[in-house]
Amino acid sequence: MKSAWFLSLLAAGLLSACSNDKQPTPKIEPQTAPEEYVLAGSWIMEAAGGVMLDPQTSGLTQVDGMLYTISDASAKEYQRRRLHQLDPATATLAARPDDMGMASRVRRSCFSNYLSDEPDLEALVADPEQPNVFYTVTEDATRTGALSDRCQQRYEATGSTDYPTLLVRIEQHDNGRATMTHVRPLQYPLSFAVGDFPNDGIEGMALGQDRTLYLALERDNAGNPRVFSVTLDETFWDSSDFVEVEDPALLVPAFDSGRHPINGLEYYQPEGADSGFLLAAARNDNELWVIDTAAQKPTRKIALQFTAPSGDPQNCSAEEVMDNASIEGLAVIGDTLWMINDPWKVNYMKNLQCPANKARYEGMAPLLFSMPIDASWFN
């Protein structure tokens, strides 16, 4: 729904609970004056009933019309290290599977302790060419112990944080449980000036043409978001050595100040097009960025607002505009873009307006949103 409808919401006073905390105003290129959409969310429900509690959902992908998400290290223990299957038609989860297993080559790796304890998994991509195969990536490893001396010597030249960022291959079994089958650390050339920011690393991934895996970094030394890439060729997982990321030189927005991370990523190729686009969730800006992977067209910025059902339409408005949604996962099914949020613990209670939602916000319950893909975004 476009901005006219949103202005009517303002007149009705639905923004009464918005925060006074304001993000710095981003630089907007002249040709990218934001369009504006208001997206109504649905509370994500557990198979046994009740909302999904504190999963810290950090990534979204789709397989055969079903959505999958993953939890980061700050989630409740029973939510971590699992693939959560979600029916987009009902926003309802499948029965929760057991936590992930670990193949012998991963157990023998330098990273087994971290991956078996509280890995900070921050993105999820399904491989369309390999059924039941997914990829995820780790971010903050400061809560884990240091690598052994031997492993530290082997993997110290990360080009970024002391503990390497890890790309992990996951295979799901028929019973819903999954296994980490392979792991490789990422290496950034020093010329990329990524910086040492353990909790501002890779938070979005998308698999594009020619098996190019795009990796969205929250911020570099200059404070800007970046998009890097690696190629998942047929020998990629044969090695456990560093894989050096590349810079595809995409037209990612840059800023003079403020924090403008990319927290979710998806690849979309319009019908008949020779190349595709990255759909990026700019969480702090409440924007969707449409980034041309051919680096020919300027990035389009689409302004977003998010609403949550109040749970008490008799005494509250049916839908209430959220102060802070924090989108961290994107997935395309057909012509629909689906989004999932990662409740930001220091900001989530700012959304509370109707008392009926208090337990949901206190429980860090996420929501599922959707919007139609507009062909004009790619012109």
What do you see in this structure?
The chain has 379 residues and is mainly beta. It is globular and about 65 Å long. The strands form five sheets. Strands 1, 16, 17, 18, 19 and 20 form a six-stranded mixed sheet that branches. The chain has five helices and 23 strands. The chain has one domain (3-378): Tachylectin-2, Chain A. It has helices spanning 3-11, 104-107, 112-116, 149-154, 358-362; strands at 35-40, 42-43, 57-63, 66-71, 84-87, 92-93, 101-102, 121-126, 133-138, 166-172, 178-187, 202-207, 212-217, 226-231, 243-244, 264-268, 277-282, 287-292, 300-309, 319-321, 327-333, 336-341, 367-372. The model is unreliable at 1-33 (pLDDT under 50).
Brief account:
With 379 residues, the protein is mainly beta.
Q: What structural keywords apply?
A:
6-stranded mixed sheet, 379 residues, globular, disordered N terminus, mainly beta, Tachylectin-2, Chain A
**How many β strands by DSSP?**
23
Number of helices: 5
Order of helices and strands: HEEEEEEEHHEEHEEEEEEEEEEEEEHE
Q: How would you sum up the major sheet? A: 6 strands, mixed
Spatial extent as radius of gyration: 20 Å
CATH C-level class is Mainly Beta
What is the fold's blueprint, element by element?
Layout: H1 3-11, E1 35-40, E2 42-43, E3 57-63, E4 66-71, E5 84-87, E6 92-93, E7 101-102, H2 104-107, H3 112-116, E8 121-126, E9 133-138, H4 149-154, E10 166-172, E11 178-187, E12 202-207, E13 212-217, E14 226-231, E15 243-244, E16 264-268, E17 277-282, E18 287-292, E19 300-309, E20 319-321, E21 327-333, E22 336-341, H5 358-362, E23 367-372
Parallel strand pairs: 1-19, 7-11, 11-15
Antiparallel strand pairs: 2-23, 3-4, 4-5, 5-6, 8-9, 9-10, 10-11, 12-13, 13-14, 16-17, 17-18, 18-19, 19-20, 21-22, 22-23
